[in-house]
């Protein structure tokens, strides 16, 4: 019988919150709970927290399938032109190449996105996108009105092109 491997992804990995990357994104907080490099680049897990109106424009992931798991609150999801209301406990599965977006319709929401790349030639890109040129959040809180949010949508659309994302239309409204 062989000895168990130690260190690396083969023996498991504990990632305390203090070592997780978090950014303020479009008025919400996005915490990279599991980076792709910790899973041999097979998937990434991001926790999102936002208030009513937190949304993303319609967009397409060219390499990644995406799963939304709503933990608290309500989202209106748009996927391939169809709208669904996703309440706490709901899961939405979005295959790569499908236009999608969301908006938070409840006062607050918390949800996970899991980004998976079934193709061997690609790795999850969302954690790289978040860590690229978006400064880290100064605290694990939502950005307040007096905190400078210098992200503009045009910047994020251009940045997305580097990470195999395409803009597909405006964000849904609450």
Characterise this structure.
The protein is mainly beta. Helix content is 10%, strand content 41%. It has helices at 126-132, 153-162; strands spanning 21-25, 28-34, 43-51, 55-61, 65-72, 74-79, 82-87, 91-94, 100-104, 108-116, 165-169. The model is unreliable at 1-6 (pLDDT under 50).
Element string (H = helix, E = strand): EEEEEEEEEEHHE
Rg result: 16 Å
Please provide the count of β strands.
Answer: 11
Please report which band the strand proportion falls in: under 5%, 5-15%, 15-25%, 25-35%, 35-45% or over 45%.
Answer: 35-45%
Shape: globular
Quaternary status: single chain
> What is the count of helical runs?
2
Mean pLDDT: 88
**Alpha-beta classification:** mainly beta
Runs in which pLDDT lies below 50 for 5 or more consecutive residues are: 1-6
Alpha-carbon distance between the two ends: 58 Å
Largest sheet: 6 strands, antiparallel
Binned, the helix content reads: under 10%
Write the layout of secondary structure elements.
Elements: E1 21-25, E2 28-34, E3 43-51, E4 55-61, E5 65-72, E6 74-79, E7 82-87, E8 91-94, E9 100-104, E10 108-116, H1 126-132, H2 153-162, E11 165-169
Antiparallel strand pairs: 1-2, 2-3, 3-10, 4-9, 4-11, 5-8, 5-10, 6-7, 6-9
Quick structural overview:
This protein is mainly beta and 174 residues long. The chain contains two helices and eleven strands, in the order E-E-E-E-E-E-E-E-E-E-H-H-E.
């Amino acid at each position: 019988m062989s000895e168990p491997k130690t260190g690396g992804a083969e023996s498991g990995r504990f990632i305390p919150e203090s070592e997780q990357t978090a950014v303020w994104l479009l008025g919400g907080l996005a915490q990279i709970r599991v980076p792709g490099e910790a899973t041999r680049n097979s998937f990434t897990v991001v926790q999102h927290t936002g208030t009513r109106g937190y949304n993303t424009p319609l967009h397409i992931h060219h390499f990644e399938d995406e799963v939304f798991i709503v933990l608290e609150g309500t989202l209106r999801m748009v996927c391939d032109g169809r709208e669904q209301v996703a309440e706490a406990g709901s899961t939405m599965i979005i295959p790569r190449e499908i236009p999608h977006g969301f908006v938070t319709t409840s006062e607050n929401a918390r949800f996970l996105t899991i980004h998976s790349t079934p193709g061997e030639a690609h790795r999850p890109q969302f954690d790289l996108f978040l860590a690229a040129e978006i400064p880290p959040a100064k605290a694990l809180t939502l950005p307040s009105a007096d905190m400078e949010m210098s992200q503009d949508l045009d910047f994020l659309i251009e940045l997305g092109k580097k990470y195999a994302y395409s803009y597909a239309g405006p964000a849904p409204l609450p």
